[in-house]
Amino acid sequence: MNNESFINEKSQVANIAKEMAKLDLVSGSSGNVSMRMPNNKPGYMAITPMGLHYSELQDQNIVVVDEELDCIEDSGVPSSESLLHLGIYQTRPDINAVVHTHSTFSSVAALSSDGIPPILDEMVIYIGGSIEVSNYAFPGSEDLAKNVCKALGDKNAALISNHGAVAVGTNLREALNVSILMERIAKIYCYSRVSNQINPLPASAIEKERAIFEMKRKSNNQ
Ligand SMILES: [Zn+2]
């Protein structure tokens, strides 16, 4: 297979990765973006490469791998955090895109094991409720993938202990939007802890908003 394969998917991944970098959700070559390949390629994903600065990233640098993480074409080395992306696709059949960031306020929130309680309406609607922190594991390891999948559960975002954040969606745009929201929530939460005045969302609002989240998920997967 030559490097002209999957050019549409590679271009989508590269565009979202560059947008993520422009938004300051990562620095240097940290963080990574992937999408599940179309149904006729079961187990394949397109993912950003290891160690390339986003300012130099081009569509053809995006790497396509199978479920063993073997490159299916001769195009470079996939992200060192590929196991995390693969783990999420295997445990969440409803998800087609993953954005992993090292954004500042999410990383601050990931220093505590408390996570972020449901404090904003949009958090329940777009993420599914509170945001959990995974148990610590070494970057790139199978344990990290396992722990993050557990923290994610059926929601659209999780914090990675002493590391950063992950956001998922039915497509790349949705996953990036969740990443942006996640960072905004983490920023508000960090500031609220300084002021030490937090009124939680009422339980009745959480219940209604969670119903909207479930409804959106169902309609996305139809
Ligand atoms: Zn990372």
Structure description:
It is a single chain. With 222 residues, the protein is of the alpha+beta class. It has a single domain (7-220), classed as 3-Layer(aba) Sandwich (L-fuculose-1-phosphate Aldolase), CATH 3.40.225. The chain is 41% helix and 12% strand. The chain has helices spanning 7-22, 82-91, 104-109, 121-127, 142-152, 172-195, 203-220; strands spanning 32-36, 45-47, 63-65, 97-101, 157-160, 164-169. The protein has a 6-stranded antiparallel beta sheet, sandwiched between helices. Strand 5 (157-160) and strand 6 form a beta hairpin. Bound molecules: zinc ion (ZN).
Highlighted features:
alpha+beta, 6-stranded antiparallel sheet, binds zinc ion, 222 residues, L-fuculose-1-phosphate Aldolase, 7 helices, 41% helix
